[in-house]
Amino acid sequence: MVQPHNDHQEQREFTHEDFMACLAYLGHEIRNPLSVISNSLSLLTFTGPTAAQRATIDSMNRQVVFIEGLVDGLSMFGSRDRPIRMESQPFDSIWERAKDLASPLFRERSIHLSEFLPSVPVVLTADGDRLVQVFANLLINSAKFTPSGGSVWMSAEPKDGFLEVRLADNGIGIPEEELPHVFEVFYQGCFATISGIAGNGLGLAIAKRLIEAQGGTIAVASKGLHQGAEFTVRFPLDPSMRG
After folding, report:
1. What share of the chain is helix, strand, coil (3-state, %, to 5)?
2. What is the CATH number of the domain that holds 155?
3. Three-state DSSP state, 70
4. Which terminus of the chain, N or C, has less C-beta within 10 A?
């Protein structure tokens, strides 16, 4: 006897694992058009561009690298198709590359960045490209949610076998009840409503995943709305720097 079809019975619950797999699939699908853009930019460098055109090509290439980092981060949610490559990396180089990616938004919004770097060179054991992505995400996040003309402060200090990097701003802040959710995938809370800036809710989630995959930690603190926010990243120093 044929049983009546029951759509409800046929449906399978969309699990958290399914969701993570979708993110990984999305990252994979973005790679192909991104590769076309990257290759096209490379070809343009052989056409004899003017200085202004070359500057534009270089700027576009940097943004392609940034998007590639986002794609890698998405892939990490569902797979490990690009393994972490841990090598000795100078922190100042990582930081400068991250600043370079975030600088267009800082200029656009007239955000002032104050830096307090270590007095001696610091070396980390890290995947340099992915750590650049982390700090670029944090800088862009601070600039997005800080009013035009505002300020962002960065300090870095070796401490107890780790490099402790603090990134603070005088932006819109975070309500206490939302602090536990800041690093959740697609979480935006009140940010978009208050600031009028829509995000994708991925940057901080990816940053946390990438940091923890390399033995580091990230935390956030805020005294509430319109009180700014501070992110603290602790990352292992290279063995050569540990006493």
Report:
1. 50, 20, 35
2. 3.30.565.10
3. helix
4. N
Domain co-membership, 172 together with 69:
no
Rounded Cα distance, 84 and 228, in Å: 32
| Domain that residue 58 falls in | 16-76
Q: What are 133-171's pLDDT values in tens digits? A: 899 889 988 988 899 999 999 999 999 999 999 999 999
Tokens of 40: 């096209």
How many domains does the chain divide into?
2
89: part of which helix (H) or strand (E)?
Answer: strand 87-90
Same domain, residue pair 180 and 201 = yes
The verdict on residue 1 lying in a domain is: no
Q: What is the pLDDT of residue 123?
A: 94
Q: Mind listing the pLDDT tens digit for each residue in 185-240?
A: 777 665 555 555 555 567 788 889 889 989 999 999 999 888 999 999 999 998 88
Please report which residue ranges of the chain form alpha helices under DSSP H: 7-10, 16-44, 51-76, 91-108, 128-144, 191-195, 203-213
Residue 69 located in a structural domain = yes
Domain boundary among 76, 104, 126: 76
